[in-house]
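A favour, since you know our structure tokens better than I do. Just paste the record in under my message, thanks.
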Amino acid sequence: MSKKWELYEIKGNKLIRKNRSCPKCGDGVFLARHGDRLSCGRCGYTEFIKGSRK
């Protein structure tokens, strides 16, 4: 399980999310990065990354 503080970055006075949010679940639910895809652990939404096929 990832540490929640590793998913954010502070620049100046702004809090920036490092990972994309799930388009189905909304803000607060991040897409996990795997070798060839991004996936949501909550709803199962998956996006495949182009050009990463072996």
In short: The chain is about 0% helix and 45% strand. The mean pLDDT is 88. The longest strand covers residues 26-33. The two ends are 26 Å apart (CA to CA).
